[in-house]
Inverse folding.
């Protein structure tokens, strides 16, 4: 029994990867794809490696009928996403891959993203999509917020330690190394091959990275009081992958037990 | 006895590399540097790896006194270069690293660069700067045209074979692999790390690359009749370097002798 | 209705990639895996990215029961492969990914691989596994010889042109650029990151590469007379992928028609 | 007035780079080069990029006359270095690039390198070669120990802060990212392009890296009491360069002032 899904924003990096993964999924089936600027094109025209897959043509969101669709993946830019999702039919379940619904506190959203949220009631309903820790909530949710890539990498190692109470919550350092595709296809000088290859550099040092907002929210929720970590992401000369080197204080045996169980 | 030189356009990739090389030259000494948009800055501010060198500050060309300067290196963009050089004091000798003076036939220049040459009388005087083949001309020249990078790489292997008469001039294939810094710092999608790394692609296939004009000019000059080669450059996921794989027809022993002598 | 397969040599690069692909195949199902030196281990222990897949443990070939298995993929080293395949139960169909059964002429095999073939009767039965050109033969075959990676890349562009009779068969140049994983995990100095990254070089130049034997065999078969091409492979600083730049002589319109149809 | 130097072990990565740098030095002049396994060869035969330089042929150390030589650079493997240096003529001044003379306490040397030092009296005389902090000692020294690459990178940021007393010496984290050429030309699987490119990994985690011995020695010397740091080096898919991300606790303004002065 297959379930029909739509992917909004299928012509970007994230959308294309999603389509590739759904194409071999045992239950999900792609019923519709949208791409504003590429509407009318086939996915194979935009991404040649997807040409062999039997996929619907790209449409504009406003031309899309959601009949028969049960689930929508939203791979749209930040801010656009909340406006589009607010207008979707009520019967749809939604997984949003933008940053729009990761922070549940409107004040935090304003602080990290610089503008008020356009769909605050949806924001309150959204479930933080870190499956390993919110599996039951996600199962029941209408709207799931895909987590930040850095934010997920950091939480996998730290949450079990905070929950087990074996580390000092106020002395956590996350030194993160990330591939460049996470920055998308933006035409920025520091993303050029001649600038990035054979080098590495931190970015958003000193607590300026938006994923820090997710660490704050999630670790504070676990501990029941404000927790602030040190977090420095670095851009590496590789396309994919994230390595988080995490420094904590606690008894090594206890830390190992908490992670191994 | 040192000789004072100026580098025009010292704030680009080419200019910076030139400055780095001149800095350890036994005779040349840097007397002046220009950079339009970076005028007033030190080289170390633009390129941190040059900070330890004792270098003059960047100026605007119009503010530059050429007193005491004997030689000017011109690392300006194509087309700009010919206008600037036309206005330089007559006592200066000039090495131009742009494409402006490589082709000596105005019709060829128009064909490959799409506009008439602005300094045709200088164009006629310029010497093609491939030292291994034009050493005497270069010594006597007022204006030397630095060759195209691909054009140089191809000629090193082929000229000795044409001059020795050991290959068929009408069956030459140049398959060229070039690092990405040759494309400069332009913000183009195909120069992004995520697009270029882990891949390679030909560009300007089918005879569209401007360096083909240099092959035509030089090989025809050697043979005294029109010679046309096949030339396909490829962009490789590396920053520097060029490898030209050249396919010719001729007796292998004779080819080897012509190259080894 | 699934069909059970075994993968022999599943602990190498080729075997692991095969397992990854079969795992999402709609019909094939993995029934057994072998790996001589890693026997007893799980695939997840050898390749962490395969840990989530439900896979049988690695066994030694001699411990393997082929009951219920219909198809065997053989990802063993050259020479080992022919010995193992000669001893497999008669009911099995086999896809061999080594070089052992690509050349059908024993004299050619001896010339390119330096030793007589150990299973010449199987060699005569094997079908050359280039699906686009031998689909019917492959369907009927007991033993399919997976083609060389470079050999496949070159044939895709050239065979249609030879079959259409639109190019000169005696003037074909194949300049091939290949990623480094094709060389496997061998500990060779020229495969080190510090040696290979930021550079490229030809290898087996001058007609020394074994895949040239496949070009000879296949192009001569198409033309009904001996055909010899020029073929120079290059190692590029990327892990995967092959680009073949092919130079031919013929009418461009006819060439385009032959490829486009 | 030039000063003649010899480079022992000139045929390795370190030796070759040293030769390249000395070749453009205003005062130093290369008088002799050794390379045990490459004795009799020219440097250009071993490293083609050095072929244009006028350099002496490689000799064996035992064949070398040190007449006229004032300074010796020793780029030999660890352990070999101490034996060779112990036998050098007394008039020579020596810069050793191995790890042999970095640690001055014999017990520390034994702990980190697993064997007793073969020249303990020289070990006691050696000056730690971090020029920015030991300039006067280096000027007077007969034997200078080149520092570990990681050890140098970490000290540049931390020593000024310890000396100024503005950070907590017991809460220092050094997360270090290093290019792969630092591991030399060893044939190890994790140094292959296909394994290293597109990935990164920590090594010697948990306090196992020998450069930690240098941090211990130097920071303890500065503070006059034992100081232990957290140090995790990572291998990055780049050939050269080191980035040390350092986490400290202290007043940000005071830290900035200590670094800026």
């Amino acid at each position: 029994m297959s379930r029909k899904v739509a992917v909004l924003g299928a012509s970007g990096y994230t959308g294309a990867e999603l389509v590739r993964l759904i194409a071999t999924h045992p239950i999900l089936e792609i019923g519709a794809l949208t791409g504003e600027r590429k509407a009318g094109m086939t996915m194979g025209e935009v991404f040649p490696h997807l040409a062999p897959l039997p996929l619907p043509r790209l449409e504009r969101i406003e031309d899309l009928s959601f009949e028969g669709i049960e689930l929508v993946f939203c791979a749209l830019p930040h801010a656009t996403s909340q406006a589009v999702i607010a207008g979707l039919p009520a019967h749809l379940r939604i997984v949003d891959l933008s940053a729009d619904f990761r922070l549940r506190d409107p004040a935090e959203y304003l602080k990290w993203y610089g503008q008020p949220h356009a769909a605050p009631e949806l924001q309150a309903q959204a479930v933080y999509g870190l499956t390993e820790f919110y599996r039951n909530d996600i199962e029941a949710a209408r709207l799931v917020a895909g987590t930040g890539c850095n934010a997920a990498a950091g939480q996998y190692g730290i949450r079990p330690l905070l929950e087990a109470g074996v580390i000092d919550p106020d002395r956590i350092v996350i030194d993160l190394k990330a591939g460049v595709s996470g920055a998308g296809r933006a035409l920025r000088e520091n993303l050029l091959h001649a600038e990035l290859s054979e080098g590495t550099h931190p970015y958003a040092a000193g607590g300026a990275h938006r994923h820090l907002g997710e660490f704050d929210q999630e670790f504070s929720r676990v501990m029941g009081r404000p927790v602030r970590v040190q977090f420095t992401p670095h851009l590496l000369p590789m396309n994919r992958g994230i390595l988080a080197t995490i420094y904590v204080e606690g008894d090594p045996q206890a830390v190992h037990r908490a992670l191994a169980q």
Summary: Chain A has ten helices and eleven strands. The interface with chain B takes residues 13, 180-181, 183, 185, 187-189, 191-198, 237-239 of chain A (CB under 8 Å). The mean pLDDT of chain A is 93. Chain A has two domains: 3-147, 150-260.
